[in-house]
Amino acid sequence: MRFCPKCGSLMRVKGSKMVCLKCGYTDSEVERVVLKESISHHNDKTIVADGEIIEGRVAVALCPRCGSTRAILLNKKKKLYKCFTCNLIYTID
C-alpha cells in the first residue's frame, strides 16, 4: 500500500502506473497488493434442532418468506443468511 507524497492519500494502480485519486500525482513504480481473506471455523457448531442436524454458523434471524428463525450465517460482513426451512438467501439491514 502506498500513499501519495504530495497529499498523503492512498494511491491506486491504473494500468502501469500508481495514481493518486485525490491530486492526480503519478508514479511509474507499480506496487501490486493481494488481498486475502481467511475464515476461522472455530466458532462453527453442530446443533441438533427438531431432529435435524445443523452445521455451520447457526444464527437466529427472521426469514422474510416463511417466518422461520433458524438460519445459517453465510457472510458476516454483508449480513447474508440462508433460511434453514425454505432455503431463501437474504440480508438483514
Automatic annotation (TrEMBL):
GO molecular function list: metal ion binding
Annotated PROSITE patterns: RNA_POL_M_15KD
Keywords: DNA-directed RNA polymerase, Metal-binding, Transcription, Zinc
Transmembrane segments annotated in the record for this chain: none
Pfam family, one: Zn_ribbon_RPB9
Biological process according to GO: DNA-templated transcription
Limits of the DNA-directed RNA polymerase II subunit RPB9-like zinc ribbon domain: 2-49
Gene Ontology cellular component annotations, sorted alphabetically: DNA-directed RNA polymerase complex
Residues in coiled coil: none
InterPro entries associated with the record: DNA-dir_RNA_pol-M_15_CS (IPR019761), Zn_ribbon_RPB9 (IPR001529)
Entry-linked NCBIfam families: TransFacS4
Family of the protein in this entry: Belongs to the archaeal RpoM/eukaryotic RPA12/RPB9/RPC11 RNA polymerase family.
Descriptive protein name: DNA-directed RNA polymerase subunit M
